[in-house]
Fold:
Amino acid sequence: PCKARIYTNHWAVRIPGGPEQAEQIASKYGYRNLGQIGDLKDYYHFFHSRTIKRSTLSSRGTHSFISMEPKVEWVQQQVVKRRTKR
Amino acid sequence: DYKPSYPGPVQSSMAQSNSIYFNDAKWSSMWYIHCNDNIHNCQSDMNIVGAWKRGYTGKDVVVTILDDGIERNHPDLIQNYDNEASYDVNGNDMDPMPRYDASNENKHGTRCAGEVAASANNSHCTVGIAYNAKIGGVRMLDGDVTDMVEAKSLSLHPQHIDIYSASWGPDDDGKTVDGPASLARQAFENGIRQGRKGRGSIFVWASGNGGRSRDHCSCDGYTNSIYTISISSTAESGRKPWYLEECSSTLTTTYSSGENYDRKIITTDLRQRCTDSHTGTSASAPMAAGIIALALEANPFLTWRDVQHIIVKTSRAGHLIAPDWKTNAAGYNVSHLYGFGLMDAEAMVKEAEHWKQVPSQHICVENADKQIRTIRPEHVVRSVYKATGCTDNANHHVIYLEHVVVRITITHPRRGDLSINLTSPSGTKSQLLANRLFDHSMEGFKNWEFMTTHCWGEKATGDWILEIYDSPSQLRSQKAPGKLKEWSLVLYGTSVHPYSFRSDKPRSLAEPQPEDEYSEEYGGPCHPECGENGCEGPGPQQCITCLHYFLKFKNNTRTCVPECPSGFFRDDKKRCKKCSTLCESCVGSRSDQCSTCRSGLYLLEGANTCISSCPDGFYLDRDYSMYRKCSENCKKCTSANICTECKTGLSLQGNKCQLSCEPGTYYNGHRRACEKCHTTCATCAGTGMEACNECASGYYFEEWRCVSSCNVGYYLAEQTTDNGDVHKSCQKCDPTCYVCTGAGERNCSTCVSGYNLENGVCVVSTICKDESWAEGSFCVLVKKNNLCQRKVLQQLCCRTCSLMG
Structure:
């Protein structure tokens, strides 16, 4: 099976400044903030509708400047993982 | 084959009589829950009914299944379904119902859920192991699974959900090395730190179905994590199922499917149905989750580590068949196939009832060994690290081990050719990695964390030996050999004995314990045989560690002894281990390691085995009560130097066996070969004509040699043996004859000088002169002793000697 990385249009970001700040930053860079990731405090699920849904290339564009945003501690574009049922 | 007692009026589910009966359709097929040895050869010792009888059915415990959804309206699930423990991550909504399609692909989660908490006594399908627990499902596999999807699932409502059960992972294709990425790792740590109000979420994981593709579950970061309880499977028979993977991070085992003739696991299925097609370690993980739910009901305050300690203490090798069962230095039996053995629900709830929380976890990251070593084909790289257990740092000091992790970076042209072992200071060897036939990757391992549970309870300090083997499975370029770049040990455990605060119970509760009078914290004196770590009571079976040796009983309890009793031997880990049944004393547990034998048996020299009858080639030495070897070449003997039968090709000479030579030859002991006899011999015992045993034809025995014709003074005599054979030999003539034709004095044919032959008799020929003084008794003696031929005597006794007769 293809071993290439498949990038999605979902991001995980870590913004210690709280939900409001996350909301601001999301809209500033064109993301939709889908809320906190589970029970992980300060981690948020961002979705970028104008990015290719599945690509072997990590996405470029102005939205990727989010990683330079000082209030953003960590950004990870989500990659599809091969998981099998046992 | 379980014959439910006919209900008449429907019995209550917890029947007052000895057996439990539910009216669920498949109840009678659930061998792994209700049968035990004495019912029609049924084999199940997870003792689930035993836990139920103690009143534990999972009440108030919340379990969720991370999978492809849950059919929450299934008649067997609807009653226990918990919305709060559910979510649809793939669809980003609250409803985890699976997506239905023709392939029925999304049945997995519903099947897992039924094993845990299908309702009991509702006439539907099956009965969950924790049939009163709350069950939820997270739909997260039915779409793109990303690090974030996993993190969301693993950290769903950690204050509400107690147990997360996952029956999935990286490909089990025997060539993947993958594990939780950063978010999922965060989720694990978050759950462990904060979940269940700080007691830690319980993550249960299926160890993998890659047996056929020679996969090794150490390459799966989820089962390798110390935060997950990795579960493997065994078939009803106790045999290893074809799909099972081995590794040292597996903690315990539950039943699952085996070969097609093995009985199956029953559970709920999509579209409100029932199935016995749920197989593999996928079926084992939820079963373990259900059992852990029973223990959490018995003691909701158990932390995530308490649960792992209880599993280690109560799981049992039982009838599980594995070639690598070993007992570690803490006295636990462990295998790479089944971890510490089959889960025992009843033993777990009993331990849980009185469990004292184990001391806080310490983590000791030993210094990395950064010395680069080349890994050459067919060679082993051995690296020894002297661990201190971080004695210099009170918050990280580890004396008693729980998990051990080896972080390792290796470059290598073909990862599948590598195998890695780790040996603890107590000598327990864990196989961290086995060769993987299909792993051609050149990526090596980058700071990969291998984990072993096999040193659980052992001491941390001392020499840890890492061994890396490179066994090329096919030709490889020699240009770039492998390199061990760096490795470090991470020791998890406690700085005080985990059970030293225990109040009342000895190490294991497999058997019901009489309420002993030490229900308070024990502060009294310890038994003299206790070691330096104190005790839980005055008896030798309540020591934490032993001064000399310890004897372990079937029910997992143990007692400290000054010496091992007869029938046991002591090994290098201060354990008294059983000799083979035939031995009285021994140096090992095999039957060929006896040093003395039980009465009626004798030690076979050289084989160190005990036998009752004396085999050929041996004789009984009563002084030493042993069978000793006969001398060389001897087939049967009565003592070391009395042979009674020789081996083929040899013949008995006296009490010895010698090479039996062809007739006409004899065995020369010096030259150790057969040599020709003298020409006059037909057979002989040695060289020369005096050594003949039989004469050649045409030759006759005369005294001890063979002659062609009798010499003077001998005549040819014939003897007929009993069987009619005629034997000829030269016999001596009568003394009065010089030459004779036969025996006696009447067959003389020639006389000695001074005698005349008269009718075959020799008479003295001399005239006697005057009467000699000696005539009388003296001369009679001379004549009786045939001395008349002597000249002097002849004259002296002339008259007597000349008389006839």
